[in-house]
Amino acid sequence: MFADQCLQTGRQSAIDTGTTAIAGPTADVAAVYANIPGSVALTGDDAGFYTFPCSTNVDFALTFGGLSYPVNPVDFNLGPVTDGSSDCVGSLFVLDT
């Protein structure tokens, strides 16, 4: 769910409690970031991650079995790209199998 809009349904998933990041297929991750104004896909060694303006309050939730689990905006934001940057790295990244 992104701002009360379901972006994908019928997906299988795995939950890894050993990481603070959230991985997903390329198309699904791109669909989420397409709803965040100013987001940009990173390239090179950072390919699969996205940045977005640090001032953006991301309203994002995952739904499993009909129960919605909101992701706190603080948890979605991994911090600035570099010290002093106004762009932050998102915790949702691409992991294709």
Please give a handful of descriptors for the protein shown.
97 residues; single chain; alpha+beta; 4-stranded antiparallel sheet; globular
Topology:
Layout: E1 22-24, H1 26-33, E2 40-41, E3 50-53, E4 60-64, E5 67-71, H2 73-76, E6 77-80, E7 87-90, E8 92-94
Parallel strand pairs: 1-8
Antiparallel strand pairs: 2-3, 3-7, 4-5, 6-7
Could you please describe the fold and organization of this structure?
- By secondary structure, the chain is of the alpha+beta class.
- It has one domain (22-94): Acid Proteases (Cathepsin D, subunit A, domain 1, Beta Barrel).
- Helices cover 12% and strands 31% of the residues.
- It has two helices and eight strands, in the order E-H-E-E-E-E-H-E-E-E.
- The strands form three sheets. It has a four-stranded antiparallel beta sheet. Strands 1-8 form a two-stranded parallel ribbon. A two-stranded antiparallel sheet has the order 4-5.
- It is globular and about 40 Å long.
- The model has no long low-confidence stretch (mean pLDDT 87).
Order of strands, main sheet, comes to 2-3-7-6
Strand % is 25-35%
Number of domains: 1
CATH homology superfamily = Acid Proteases
Q: Give me the Rg, rounded.
A: 13 Å
> Count the strands?
8
Task: Work out the helix count.
Answer: 2
Measured as a percent range, the helix fraction is 10-25%
Unreliable sequence segments: none
Shape label: globular
| Major β-sheet profile | 4 strands, antiparallel
Structural class based on helices, strands and sheet pairing: alpha+beta
N- to C-terminal distance: 22 Å
- Text of the CATH class: Mainly Beta
